[in-house]
Structure formats: C-alpha cells, structure tokens
Amino acid sequence: MQTNLKDFTGESIYVGIDSHLKSWKITLMCDELELRNFTQEPDSKKLATFLRRNYPGADFQCVYEASFSGFNAQRALNSEGIPCMVIHPADVPTTDKEKRQKSDRIDSRKLARGLKNGDFTPIYVPSIEQQQDRSLLRIYDKVTRDISRVKNRIKFFLMFFGIEIPSEFQGKNWANGFNTWLKQVNPGGLGNQSFRILLGEYEMLKGKWLELNQMIKELSNQDRYKENVELLNSIPGIGRLTAMILLTEIGDINRFPSFKELSSYFGLIPNCHNSGETERVGRNTKRGNVYLKYILVEVSWMCIRYDSSLLLTYKSAVRTMNSNKAIIKVAHKLLNRIRFVLRNKQPYKII
Questions:
Q1: Which of 130, 341, 151, 155 has its CA nearest to residue 250?
Q2: Residue 9, pLDDT above cutoff 50
Q3: For strand 12-19 and strand 24-29, is the pairing parallel, antiparallel, or unpaired?
Q4: Per-residue pLDDT tens over the stretch 92-105
Q5: SS3 of 16, please?
Q6: Contacts within 8 Å (CB) and 24+ apart, 224-233
Q7: The pTM is what?
Q8: How far apart, in Å, are the Cα atoms of 123 and each of 65, 108, 133?
C-alpha cells in the first residue's frame, strides 16, 4: 500500500479574502498558479484549519480589504500563526476588464495576485486597547450629533404648532430655565404625547453624553494618556476632549517616520497629476482620517486668535485664496507643531 504524504515545507500560499457579512470568497495562489477559489462562512479558525489540512508545512500569507468587519479576522488569523494584512480598498491594482466585470471571485483573485506580487502596503492595525479607547471618543461624537438632531426636531415641532419660544430664552436655549419651560409646553391631544417622547429622547441622550464625558475624563487621567494630554493642552484651542481624540486616533506618533506621512494620515496633502511639462495640483486628497482633519481645522480657527505666527500664516494665505483654503495651510503648520510637542515631550510655546 502506497501512502501519499503531503509536505509543502518551503512553499508559499497566498490567500485573498473578499469579506462579506455572511460569507468569504477566497482565492488561493502559489508562486506558479491559482490553486483554488471557494466560498466559506466568515470564520478565521475554519480557514486556518482548511489551510493546514490541505497544505501542511506551507508558509501562508492572507490579505483582505478594510471594511465593516474591522480587524477581527486579522487578529484571529495572526493568533493562529497565519500572517494577515489589512489594506486600503483603493490600493488594489485593477485592470479595466476587472472594473467592467466585477464579482466576488474576481475581487478575491485580485487580492491574492497583489499579495503574491508584493503590491500591498498594510494599513495600521491598532491594539485592542487603543481601538476600545477610540470607540469611546467616537461614540461620544455620535451622541453629540444625535443631541443636536433632537434639539432641532424639538424646535421645528414648536414651530409646526405655532408655539413661540419666550424672549427671555432667545439665544439661551437649553439652559435649565429653558428646559423647565419645555416641560410645561402642551401642544394638546396626541401632539402632547409626541412632544413628551421628543423631550424624553433628548434627556436620555443628555444623560449618556454626561456619562461619556466623565468616562473620557477618567481615561485621560490614566498613565498612558496623562502626560500627552497635558502637553497637547498647552496648545491654544486644544482641551481635554480634543487631546483625547487626537491621541486615540493617532496612537503612537513615532509610527509615522516623516511629517509627510502624518499629513497624509490627516488628509492634508493635495491630489496631483504631473505628466511631462504639465503639472496639476488639486484639492486635498479624500484619503486619510476625515474625523481628524475636521478636528484639526476647528482647532486651527481657535489657534490663529492666540498665536501671532499662525495668524500671519493665515493672513498671508487668505490674500490669494478663500478662508477655507487658507485655514488648511494653518492646520498643516499646526500639525507639524503637534508632532514636535508629542515627539519631543515639550510644551507648546507661543513666541
């Protein structure tokens, strides 16, 4: 009886995973050819077991695009001893034919092929702890936006029923006195019940907002954040909340080897198209962390009121462009100073 023992020691197997909510489309390639293309449930351990059973001893590499599923599959595969990278979806090389005949099979094949050819640069995968801290700040932002929406609904509800806000509360909305007045409003009939539901939603969200605020305050006082929060607080316009947003989104500032890469992460580098004698520079790229870019621009508007150097940068830029573009130049300069403060552990000084 002849036994056929499989041994793929020294061989490389490239695994492209096109991930979806209920299934994964997977393509396997070796250095010479495509091996398999199949569908399985989204289960990292099941995939690891399949690979080891069919290709024992092989060196596996996996890749999938950043999406709704986050980094769970990457962490699970790495824990199984199978290296996995997560890449930006826009970085996958695609032919015109593949764009016109898109399918899950083709997408997973592109991923495996790009991995084999060494075309991919993985995105940064935060630690579980950093991801948890980051989620707290992001939920705080979402609750803040939800509160603004509910406030607007309440105001439009009052307008719809012709109920005027008393003059003493004009410009002082949502103070304690105004909240007391709202509880006394009675549109009548079922409208009264509808209004109570809106007020209840506002009070619930406000309670969650206060709870999140306290949690962020406690987190900022922990050893891993306290020093950097104090350093960032030395910059005009950056308070505790903004400092925590910057720190949880950036992570370790030293992971960016250059200021250009940090600017790219913030989305503060322009699109460009240079060909021959033609050079075109467009608007800032849409790639990058839009959340961070928004925060940095808001801080820049505050900084120019206190830092004369940044004010001069703004005034010089606004002569040749509109104010929204000019503040981007300030934000770029301010980001460089934030980087200096965090890397050198020195407080910000206004000269």
A1: 130
A2: yes
A3: antiparallel
A4: 988 888 888 889 99
A5: strand
A6: 227/345, 228/342, 230/347, 231/341, 231/342, 231/345, 231/346, 231/347, 231/348, 232/338, 232/341, 232/342
A7: 0.85
A8: 10, 18, 19
| CA–CA distance, 66 with 226 (Å, rounded to integer) | 31
Query: What is the mean pLDDT of the segment spanning 10-33?
Result: 94
Calculate the CA 185 to chain-centre distance.
41
Q: Which two tokens stand for residue 258?
A: 């250059």
Q: Locate 31 and state its tokens.
A: 């250095």
Token couple for 109: 């094949």
Sequence-ordered alpha helix ranges (H) in the chain: 44-54, 72-79, 96-100, 104-117, 128-160, 176-184, 189-220, 223-233, 240-250, 259-265, 290-303, 308-318, 323-344
Continuous segment of H or E residues that includes residue 86: strand 84-87
Half-sphere exposure of 63 (CA within 13 A, CB side): 29
Q: Average pLDDT for residues 180-208, to the nearest whole number?
A: 91
Instruction: Find out whether 157 and 198 touch, Cβ atoms under 8 Å.
Output: yes
Distance, CA of 62 to CA of 276 (rounded, Å):
38
* Sign of CA pseudo-dihedral 224, 225, 226, 228: positive
